[in-house]
Amino acid sequence: MDWILPLILILLNYGAFIYILEKFLRKQLDIKKPEKKWGRDYVNDLHKKLTRSIVIPLTILAPMIISYNIHRMQLSFLVLVFLIPLLETLLNTIMEYLYRRERKQYIIFGMHTIVTLVFFTFLASNNFFDLIPEPEPHPSPEDFEAGSVK
Fold it and tell me: Which of 3, 39, 60, 92 could form a disulfide with 131, with the two C-beta atoms 3.0–4.6 Å apart?
């Protein structure tokens, strides 16, 4: 469980960066925040159904499929933390661009998509800063012959 605190710090930095960049873009490009305070502001019913078809299966199935090993459980958690927002913001970007181009919200969602993709790529290329332990190697046939493995 040593990986929880570093992961929280990484997510806080990610969230702070997104927040600051969004504030900057909204001010520079004069993009108003959506009026809806609670819940999502879906473009149409298709947008709502597609979002749910991304979020619900990934949230339910990923831990179930990959939870047989602690190494894989941490990996599934990281995938859930970054894959769901990445796919959801990509969908939001496309739907806003196709159906509500005049509101310019697609710029904000596009920025979220790009930052999430770059951030996740950076973490993955650095082995998630060793948040995921290396799996133990399988014993070789020589280990069995030498009697070091029972």
Answer: 3
Q: Per the structure block, which two tokens stand in for 72?
A: 């894989």
Nearest 5°: the CA angle 101, 104, 105 is 105
Phi-psi label, residue 33: left if phi above 0, alpha if psi -120 to 50, beta otherwise: beta
d(CA 111, CA 86): 11
Alpha-carbon span 51 to 73, nearest angstrom: 24
With CA atoms as reference, report the closest residue to 59 among 83, 94, 86, 95: 83
How does pLDDT run across 124-136, given as a tens digit for each residue?
Answer: 777 666 666 566 6
Could you tell me if 31 and 96 are in contact, meaning their C-beta atoms sit under 8 angstroms apart?
Answer: no
pTM: 0.72
| Whether the Cβ atoms of residue 89 and residue 112 lie closer than 8 Å to each other | yes
